[in-house]
Amino acid sequence: MAANRKRKVDNENRQFNDDWTVQYCFVQQHTIVICLLCHSTVAVAKVSNIKSHYETKHRDFHNVVGDKRTAQIESLRRSLNRQQNIFSKQTADFSVACEVSYEISLMIAISGRPFTDGDFVKQCMITASEKLCPEAVRKLQTVALNRMTVQRRISHLSADVTRQLADKAANFVYFSLAADESTDIISTTQLLVFVRGVSSSFDFTEELIGIGSMKGQPTASALFEETVRLCSSVSLDLTKLVSVTTDGAPAMTGESNGMVPPLMKHRGKQNRQLVKLHCIIHQHNLCSKELGFQALMALVTKTISSNHECSITANFEVFLKKLVQIMVTLFIAVKYAG
Fold first, then answer.
1. In degrees to the nearest 10, what's the CA dihedral of 293, 295, 301, 302?
2. Around Cβ 187, how many Cβ atoms within 10 Å?
3. Minimal CA–CA distance to 12: which of 52, 57, 45?
4. What is the Cα–Cα distance from 233 to 211, expressed in whole angstroms?
5. In terms of Cα–Cα distance, which of 247, 242, 231 is closest to 274?
6. Cα–Cα distance between 48 and 59 in angstroms, integer?
7. Rounded distance, CA 21 to CA 28, Å?
8. Is 335 part of a structural domain of the chain?
9. Which residues form the SPIN-DOC-like zinc-finger domain (predicted)?
């Protein structure tokens, strides 16, 4: 037996007949057929459905004929268009107000301000608008900036940034990681992981993946697991990892109890190609120790300390500023264009 095929109205290519407007008071708006008298719609735009609706619900209008009927139908058509334009304008105004809410929420997040500042910012805008452009007060009042709204806006923006980074990470041919561990003012360990990747078209992306918080003294395994978790949040394929830059702490680079060795094992057969680097600050620290600048630095420290102990501190600061202005062009022997 042949399979039963369901009938699809969209495939029937039914066309609206303009004569139905005068006969049955129906008009077509996009793909919808609307009654001008009650603003109802019919499921299928065919004459039997339209005629049945008209004769059932608007039989009295059948007595209106001639020019009077034509004038009333035109009036009803204009009224429907005005209502739709009002709804369209309200939708556009709401869209702009929502966009403004997101923009201000982003500014609050970037500046590190509390979410409750949204209400204060809104009140400032309304107060300024009352003096500068009173016609915009009503629009500003529709901008949602309460605490919970700002929180949701920032969460949506954060999720969108993560999604964009995941989309770019999917095109990475190779990438490198930079991990830095530090302790904040409440003694919570914060692990920051950055990524720098390149696509097959040589488009580079450098971005913060995320921040992981850990309680207590972090172990190498905890740092490794947190790094893998952050990489997984943006769908990074660790088999494409080619280098890792760390802050040089034992928990990061230790051969037996560091974060990097298990990361190398996690990559499987690619572990021999992984390059381990110290961050630039740690390299400078090692360089200053190996090159023997202790005597020079001791003299500089002693001189600066003696200047701070006497009354020539202000003059010394002026001298340093002039020295920078004089010596700044001597650091580079060749000037590079661009």
1. -170
2. 8
3. 45
4. 11
5. 242
6. 15
7. 9
8. no
9. 20-70
Q: For residue 192, give the CATH number of its domain.
A: 3.30.420.40
Asked if 223 and 254 touch (Cβ cutoff 8 Å), the reply is no
Radius of gyration, alpha carbons of the chain: 35
Task: Find out whether 147 and 119 touch, Cβ atoms under 8 Å.
Answer: yes
Token pair listed for 144: 């949602």
Q: Among 268, 284, 300, give the residue marking a domain's end.
A: 284
Residue 89 to residues 38, 76, 167, Cα–Cα distance (Å): 22, 20, 35
Cross-sheet strand order for the sheet of 189-199: 204-214, 189-199, 172-183, 241-246, 275-278
Return d(Cα 95, Cα 313) in angstroms, integer.
Answer: 58
Q: Which amino acid is at 319?
A: F
pLDDT digits 0-9 by tens, 46-91: 777 777 787 777 877 777 777 777 887 788 777 777 776 655 555 6
**Domain for residue 184, yes or no?**
yes
User: Could you tell me if 116 and 206 lie in one domain?
Assistant: no
Phi/psi of residue 205, nearest 5 degrees: -130, 125
Among the candidates 86, 110, 132, a domain finishes at 86
Tokens of 136: 């915009």
The position carrying tokens 């500003």 is: 140
Range of the domain at 64: 13-86
Q: What is the DSSP string of 120-134?
A: HHHHHHHHHHHHH-G
List, for residues 162-195, the tens digit of each pLDDT value.
888 888 888 899 998 888 887 777 777 888 889 9
pTM here is 0.53
Distance from chain centroid for Cα 282 = 33
Element (H, E) at 151: helix 147-169
Q: Which two tokens stand for residue 244?
A: 């890792």
